[in-house]
Amino acid sequence: MASVKVRYLIFDVESVADGDLISKVRYPGDSLSPAEAVRRYQQERLEKYESDFIPYSYQVPAAIVVAKVAPTYELLDLVALDEPQLRPHILTENFWRGWEMYGRPTLVSFNGRNFDLPLLELAAFRFGISLGSWLDMHKPNYQQLRYRYNLDSQLDLLEVLTNFGAVRFSGGLNLAASLLGKPGKIDVQGHMVQAMYEEGKTGEITQYCRCDVLDTYFVFLRTSVLLGQLSLEREQEIVAQTKHWLEARADQVPAFRQYLDHWGDWVNPWQPGEYPREAPRSEETAN
After folding, report:
1. Structural domains of the chain, count
2. Could you tell me if 213 and 11 are in contact, meaning their C-beta atoms sit under 8 angstroms apart?
3. How far apart are alpha carbons 142 and 125 in whole angstroms?
4. pLDDT one-digit tens code per residue, 163-181
5. Which of 61, 82, 111, 199 can bridge 90 by disulfide, Cβ–Cβ 3.0-4.6 Å?
6. How far apart are CA 235 and CA 181, in angstroms?
């Protein structure tokens, strides 16, 4: 496996609010504990926005899971960074240095451009981590890895499905995965992570993150079919291979067993052995 090039890094980040920071910035002089500051800010946002979600600028990474994917779209490995310590500064360092170590593969996420990557960039700012190769702002905009439409450096699956935010995608990753028969959200949802973290359930957070990355991987495969980069027939072969890959490791990784227990197959409307005709590929796409 070590000799196989990693072409894509599919990732997901779970994060928690920094109560000390919220207390200091938003409520100076009120002597609030970290937990009190978080609850007060959540209540304020709930009353104003009908959502208690705290902006990423007040959060730190609590878990990061990365799937390594070959140029052939096959899953090579799926790892939780800095487990079980899950130290925010080490999580951030390992993510960015790992991306460089594997030769700067395409970062793949679902809504990562709007949340996960800004969170990790700000975490690097906070912890003094250099992102010179990622934030190369001396090049023309279209050549920068951070450029919004540079899909070779960052592929946000939500942006593909919404034409870069031109339309709204109600249902999120849960819906996209469910369309393919995959589990989607099982026992945990994103809004539960803060409370789980405060209860010390960090292992469960990581398992949840693993399942989200698996959902993202299968959505990535189907998006690659949509983009004309992968045939539906080949995608179905890879899905079957991945199921076997998970089965071989399910005894060691509880999240894999949980995912398999909720596994569903895509309902194929085509006749056995029949697949839709592929669109002609341009010379640029073929290369």
Report:
1. 1
2. yes
3. 24
4. 999 999 999 999 999 999 9
5. 82
6. 14
